Amino acid sequence: MPKVTTNNLNETKVLAKEIVNKLGLAAKGATILALFGDLGAGKTSFTQGVAEALGIAETISSPTFVIEKIYDLQNQSFHKLIHIDAYRLESGSDLLKLGFMDILADETNLIILEWTENVLEILPPTINKINFKFVDENTREINYEI
Ligand code: ADP
Ligand code: MG
């Protein structure tokens, strides 16, 4: 599993761009970037890098209270970026209540999920796992399987 140490926010965004450029549409179903790691570990910052790589102009913030935000993409193989923050969810069944199965059925969706730990049991085995670890104020260790 590749392990990268980033020394500032921008390096985390650059890694996000590299990872998003490696993704292609799956034959069946949405593509999921499943982010793991504590508060402040860099999950939303990484998501901002993904959004920039996909040409999203608006600022991405953590959808902690709304749970889910959907961004339409222009001139991309994925048609939508769906940013989900499972921080306030207790289990995967909470995600199912939000219509997750419909989102999952569409291969043109790219789903980026924060707090994967909370909903892991309902996710398909094909998720792309990305682990964030806080090392010190500006340093993060990021492990991923893409
Ligand atoms: P999370 O979504 O995991 O709670 P955020 O991305 O919202 O985390 O917050 C990460 C914070 O850490 C931001 O304030 C960011 O500027 C800061 N930071 C410092 N160094 C890094 C780094 N190497 N990678 C990502 N974020 C960093
Ligand atoms: Mg966050």
Name some characteristics of this structure:
globular; Rossmann fold; 4 helices; 146 residues; seven-stranded mixed beta sheet; binds magnesium ion; binds adenosine-5'-diphosphate; alpha/beta; 29% strand
Describe the structure.
Its main location: cytoplasm. One of its GO terms (cellular component) is cytoplasm. A seven-stranded mixed β-sheet has the order 1-7-6-2-5-4-3, with helices on one face. It has helices at 9-22, 43-53, 92-97, 100-104; strands at residues 3-6, 31-36, 68-72, 80-85, 109-114, 128-136, 139-145. The mean pLDDT is 96. By secondary structure, the protein is α/β, with parallel strands linked by helices. The chain has one domain: Rossmann fold. It has four helices and seven strands. The chain is globular, with a radius of gyration of 14 Å. It is 25% helix and 29% strand. Helix 1 packs across helix 2. The structure holds adenosine-5'-diphosphate and magnesium ion. The site of adenosine-5'-diphosphate has 20 residues, from helix 1, helix 2 and strand 7. Adenosine-5'-diphosphate (ADP) binds at residues 6-9, 11-12, 37, 39-45, 62, 114, 132, 138-140.
List the helices and strands and how they pair.
Blueprint: E1 3-6, H1 9-22, E2 31-36, H2 43-53, E3 68-72, E4 80-85, H3 92-97, H4 100-104, E5 109-114, E6 128-136, E7 139-145
Parallel strand pairs: 2-5, 2-6, 4-5
Antiparallel strand pairs: 1-7, 3-4, 6-7
Helix pairs in contact: 1-2
The structure holds adenosine-5'-diphosphate (ADP) and magnesium ion.
